[in-house]
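User: I'm preparing a small set of examples for a lab meeting where we compare how different chains pack in three dimensions. I only have the primary sequence for this one, and I'd like the structure in token form so I can line it up with the others. Please keep the answer compact; I'll paste it straight into my notes.
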Amino acid sequence: MAVIKRVAVLPADSPSGQQAEKSYLRTQLRTGAIWSLIFQIASKSSLFVIGGVAARLLSVQDLGRLFATQGLLILLVAVADRGISLYLERNIAAARLRRGSLRVQFVVRAMESVASFGICFVGFTTFTTYSNGVCAWFSLAFTAMYFSITTNAALQGFQNFRTSALTQTTGRLVYLAAILLIVAADERSIAGVAAAWALGEITIAVTQSVWILKSRARGGGYAQHVYAAVPRDSAIRSYRRLAARAVPYWISVVAYLAYNRADSTIVLLFSNARQAGLYAPASNIQTALMVIPSALTGAMAVVGAAAIGRGEASTRDLLAEVKRLSIRAVLASLALAAAATAIAPYIILVFAGRAYQSSDLPTRIIVWSLPLNAVEFSLLGLLISLGFPGKTIWFYLTTLSASLVANAALTPHFGAVGGAWAAVIREPFGCAVLIYHTRRSIRGTLNRTPARHQAQAE
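Assistant: Understood. Below is the structure token output for the 458-residue chain.
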């Protein structure tokens, strides 16, 4: 029998022990959510300013092309990642991964990143009308994102939310600084914006890699959070096993990005570049206001996996915290949606300028998806933390299908306004499906005793 070194001071079945367990879980979730929220606010604020500056630098058509290209590249990063990063994040947090598996993944990801630049550049030059310089910058951005998705997953798995937030915020600030330099140089082209984006993503990849290497050298998070919980094996077989187990996470991540980032591309598909350009500010404002749901998802997926995997709490305790945080998130999202509706014209004026005044109505419509987003993101984080990534696919399939149908019916006739209505219409369907699958998935786990309590009993 394995020796369990964890020693609990309080009896498992005592009121004080249960209260301490809930307090621990609540503290961890609060810490993770606060740092995730800090990053989300800093990131969204900088992207909000960047989007406004880009709207003044580029024409409506070029802005639509830029946002559509960025959304496509982010989706391609998730496809190429194959779900490995999210799998690493959850299993590092739950102490279910060999240190060697993480080391192998970093080496493989570095080699893949180098190869991805050439593949991406050839793809851009072959299938787009961008110049070679623009293609090179977009390819660099893709390469940096492809590597940093793994480094950030490791930081999140270590529950080092602060470093993750600070490094990503630094990258966003570099992006913003580069954009402001472009304004000073009066360079009005997609090439300048693409270069600024690439520099920001490279900054994130480099700073996170430096932290992980330093942490490994001094025996920090790298050494403390990765355990020999699986049999020792060859590097190739270890990588194959990891890649196979990551497939459900892969499908979940790709579906999420298609749900969250492909809306501008869908509007462009059913209308034209001008309507996609008018829709882009409304979509970016909605994304910026999703700071609270996004923070809850990031914290829940990691802290929940750690609490359950290491025997710190039961599923019932985790579900109680999800309900408590979801109610608060819904109330905050309602307030944000009401405020955004009231001041939408001023937001558009500051964000994009007078040329985008027609984005006012799409913005007033699309922000009312936020309250349901708060519920959905909390449940998505819960399912991932409990190891049910495959169940989240039903939510994404439902929302994506509803979005496509609604866009096909509304966008050709109403343009950006139709796209905004489609973004709202899809949420009730997705929320209902997600609640149904969440209840089915956790039904058999609610009464399980945490491993820490089982150890005490033995």
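A couple of notes for your slides: The chain has two domains: 14-41+250-450, 84-245. The chain has a mean pLDDT of 75.

User: Perfect, thanks.
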